[in-house]
Design goal:
The protein has helices at 12-16, 26-39, 53-65, 79-89, 106-113, 117-132, 150-163, 179-192, 194-198, 214-224, 245-254, 271-282, 303-311, 339-348, 355-371, 377-387, 437-449, 494-520, and strands at residues 7-10, 43-47, 70-76, 96-103, 137-143, 167-172, 202-207, 228-231, 395-403, 411-418, 428-433, 454-462, 471-478, 485-491. The protein is α/β, with parallel strands linked by helices. The strands form three sheets. Strands 1-2-3-4-5-6-7-8 form an eight-stranded parallel barrel, surrounded by nine helices. Strand 13 and strand 14 (485-491) form a beta hairpin. The structure holds 3-methyl-2-oxobutanoic acid (KIV) and zinc ion. 3-methyl-2-oxobutanoic acid is lined by residues 15, 101, 141, 143, 169, 171, 173, 206, 208.
Length: 522
């Protein structure tokens, strides 16, 4: 690898997915991983295998399917974590990486771990050695590295490199660093640990955004000697998030005059598509003014700017929007488009769907095509988002009629189909009244499905422009489980979109209950 090649390590599926409300199911994670491969990131951190069966399966499935990027699994410096990570990334062969971490800062040593410096080094070395016995590619992270005493950090880096770590990552775990200071810390490590300078081991950075400095810190570190940057799409992640991949990559590309010679292998034209997909799959909306990928990132509102751009784009635009994938939309489909056209467009959009899935989406596409003139790529992505659920459906929506207005009691009549085969012939129809049409609809669904959910979060957005745009509803429901259950649904009718999102959550909840029951049976 060239000396100034920057390795892009994407942790959307691990640190990104770790943030509240962002959890994705297996199929959603696989779609994101496929898109990350198209984006040509170098490393995909696919999860934390010991955390749950779901995380283990996701890392394993990604390692089995995704070719090209290195697939990493996270582990604490604990044997069972390391073994689980090793088993999960095994299918990636030489492209499998185990990423072990252990806190090194004084505050973590004293208050969290109760361990002295020499014990920390002993555990770190043992963890790296165990990981190296399973894979050749091992990364070590001294958690809270930026707040660790620099002299001790040098010792830790040297020890783990000697033990076989091929990458050492210096996390700014709590987003405490300041660019000049963090850049200087990385430079010091680069100078004092011979393996970093010789290129025998890679120095990596991982910055959180608590002070809004994650990208600035990552870029300062690159100039200090870091050759791997850990980041996430849309900057999603714990608390205020991680460094945003699109910002790190485009800063280096757009300001190549300053970051002379530094380059990464990312296919920037896939950036907007990646951003949209992650936003859909994680249910985390992107703010309009977000750099690079926000709706307003290239929208010039003032007359002076518009005039300037028309005369010469570069007067007010430092990047060509097409370079990051804006404006690459194909002609919209219409109700006359056939199944083959739909299947081909879904494939172009990057979805890998089995025949029954295409069939189900085609049925929804036809329904929507009858209601609106054009079906845009954004609408299709929303339909797929609503459809992708790893759970087999128990209930589906058959019929919905709503009466609502300012002088009437909102009433909803709902008919459902039971699609899990049990009592499929029975008629499941009921009516509900509520504070509003959505409330009335959800109450009727609760009675029919014999569930009782409390709506904790509700968001509605239009997928495209125009009065006939699809409304996409994202919700989080409390069914009394340990975790809130997400649900998504889309339709030209926002009440129907709400009903679909709620049924999606009900199906997930019922499925996880069934799974739990199966696991507790002898
Ligand atoms: O922020 C952090 O310290 C981490 C480590 C596990 C790398 O995410
Ligand atoms: Zn982190």
């Amino acid at each position: 690898m060239k000396k100034n090649r920057i390795i892009i390590f994407d942790t959307t599926l691990r640190d990104g997915e770790q943030c509240p409300g962002a959890s994705m199911n297996l199929r959603e994670k696989l779609e994101v991983a496929r898109q990350l491969a198209r984006l040509k990131v170098d490393v995909i951190e696919a999860g934390f295998p010991i955390i749950s069966e779901g995380d283990f399966t996701a890392v394993k499935s990604i390692a089995q399917e995704i070719k090209g990027p290195i697939i990493a699994g996270l582990a604490r410096c604990v044997d069972k974590d390391i073994d689980a990570a090793g088993a999960a990334v095994k299918a990636a062969g030489a492209n499998g990486r185990i990423h072990v971490f252990l806190a090194t800062s004084k505050i973590h040593r004293e208050f969290k771990l109760g361990k002295a410096q020499d014990e920390i080094i002993r555990l770190a070395v043992a963890g790296v050695k165990r990981a190296r016995s399973l894979v050749a590619d091992v990364e070590f992270s001294p958690e809270d590295g930026s707040r660790t005493e620099p002299e001790f950090l040098v010792q830790v880096c040297q020890a783990v490199v000697d033990a076989g770590a091929t990458t050492v990552n210096i996390p700014d775990t709590v987003g405490w660093a300041i660019p000049d200071q963090y850049g200087a810390l990385i430079k010091r490590l680069y100078e004092e640990v011979p393996a970093f300078k010789s290129g025998a081991a890679v120095i990596s950075v991982h910055c959180h955004n608590d002070l809004g400095l994650a990208v600035a810190n990552s870029l300062a570190a690159v100039r200090g000697g870091a050759r791997q940057v850990e980041c996430t799409i849309n900057g999603i992640g714990e608390r205020a998030g991680n460094a945003a991949l699109e910002e790190v990559v485009m800063a280096m590309k757009t300001r190549a005059d300053f970051y002379e010679g530094f380059a990464c292998g990312v296919n920037t034209r896939e950036i907007v598509k990646s951003s949209r997909l992650v936003s859909r799959m994680s249910s985390l909306l992107v703010q309009r003014n977000k750099a690079i990928v926000g709706e307003n990132a290239f929208a010039h509102a003032s007359g002076i700017h518009q005039d300037g751009v028309l005369k010469k784009r570069e007067t007010y635009e430092i990047m060509d929007p097409q370079e990051v994938g804006w404006g690459a939309t194909e002609l919209p489909l219409t109700k006359h488009s056939g199944r083959a056209a739909l299947a081909s467009r879904l494939k172009d959009l990057g979805f890998k769907l089995a025949e029954p899935d295409v069939q189900a989406i085609f049925a929804r596409f036809k329904e929507i095509g009858d209601k609106k003139k054009f079906v845009y790529d954004e609408d299709l992505t929303a339909l797929v988002g609503g459809h992708i659920t790893e759970v087999p459906e128990t209930w589906s929506l058959d019929y919905l009629a709503v009466v609502s207005g300012n002088q009437t009691v909102p009433t909803a009549t709902v008919r459902l189909k039971r699609v899990d085969g049990r009592k499929a012939d029975a008629v499941y129809q009921d009516a509900g009244i509520g504070d509003g049409p959505v409330d009335a609809t959800l109450k009727a669904i609760d009675r029919l499905t014999e569930t009782r959910g409390e709506l904790m979060e509700y968001s509605l957005r239009a997928t495209s422009q125009g009065h006939d745009a699809l409304g996409e509803v994202n919700i989080k429901v409390d069914f009394g489980d340990r975790q809130l259950v997400p649900g998504k649904g889309a339709s030209t009718d926002v009440i129907e979109a709400s009903a679909r999102a709620y049924l999606n959550a009900v199906n997930r909840h019922l499925f996880s209950g069934e799974e739990r029951k199966k696991r507790s049976e002898p």
